[in-house]
Each structure stands twice: as C-alpha cells, then as structure tokens.
Design a protein that fits this description.
Strand order of the largest sheet: 2-1-3-4-5
Shape: globular
Number of strands: 5
Largest sheet: 5 strands, mixed
Radius of gyration: 14 Å
Strand content: 15-25%
Oligomer: single chain
Order of helices and strands: HEEHEHEHEH
Distance between the termini: 33 Å
Number of helices: 5
Length: 151
C-alpha cells in the first residue's frame, strides 16, 4: 500500500466515524478493512449496539475464516483498544490478532480518557503486526470527538 492509499482509506474511516451516534463517555471511531485493494468491511462505534467498537463492527461482518483477512489492512481512526470497560467483550486488539490481519493503520493513539494506558499498538507490534500511524490525519479523526475532554 502506498501513502496515498493509506490516506484514501483512512479518510473513508473518518467519514464512517462521523456516522457514530454521539455519546458522552465514548469515542466516535470508524474502521475499514481492505484486502487486495478493495473494501471488504466497514464499521463504526455504536453501529449495531451501544457497546460495539468500530473494529468489532467491521470484523463481525466477515467470516472469521475469510482468507482475505490474512492479507488485509484494517484502518481505524483510533488506536484499537487493548482493554474494554465492557469486560464481557474481547478488546479490539485481540480481535485483530485472532483475525490474523497483518497490518493496522491508525490516525491517533488512544488518550488516557477512559483507559489509563492503552497498549494496542505495542501489543500488535509484539505479535508481528505492522502498525502505521498517520498523525497528519489525527486532527480530522479527532474532530467527531469534541464532546470529550481529550486534554
């Protein structure tokens, strides 16, 4: 994937994040899964229920055995969570690892707003996943989260 491709798909994820119902106490995040240059699934926070995360919503639309996942890239406007407030749900980092997705592209890292120390990027990298950060798109990805105190 080229930098232009990364920007194209991250902008698609940012558009999806704008669809999130705004909820105090929750991030608005968009996600796109791309394989072989094609969008194969999308998701956004609270798309199907109040607790679903963007990456989770996108992954739920695919068969876990889909062979495209092993050559896919997932674009998420925010670093995938490494722990969940909803303890009955698997963190998005663990879901990405279980899906065998080899590349993750994010626009910004999760601040300590809800979780003291998100280690999604580190956990992915430790398991051999390539993580690309696009800080130049962070402001656009954060724009739909103005309802939160991100300082």
């Amino acid at each position: 994937m080229t930098e232009l491709d990364h920007h194209h798909w991250m902008n698609r994820a940012i558009t999806l994040a704008g669809l999130c119902p705004v909820v105090e106490g929750a991030f608005s995040v968009g996600a796109v899964i791309v394989a072989d240059g094609e969008e194969i699934a999308t998701g956004y926070s609270r798309e199907t229920d109040p607790k679903i995360h963007a990456e989770e919503a996108a992954l739920d639309k695919l068969d876990p055995a889909d062979p495209r996942l092993s050559r896919a890239t997932i674009y998420s406007t925010l670093e995938p969570c490494s722990e969940r407030a909803t303890k009955s749900r698997l963190p998005c980092t663990d879901r990405i690892l279980a899906a065998r997705i080899p590349e993750v592209v994010i626009a910004w890292r999760e601040p300590s707003t809800f979780v003291e120390d998100c280690v999604g990027v580190e956990k992915l990298q430790q398991q051999g996943v390539k993580v690309v950060e696009l800080p130049e798109l962070a402001e656009a990805a954060m724009a739909m989260n103005q309802h939160l105190d991100l300082s």
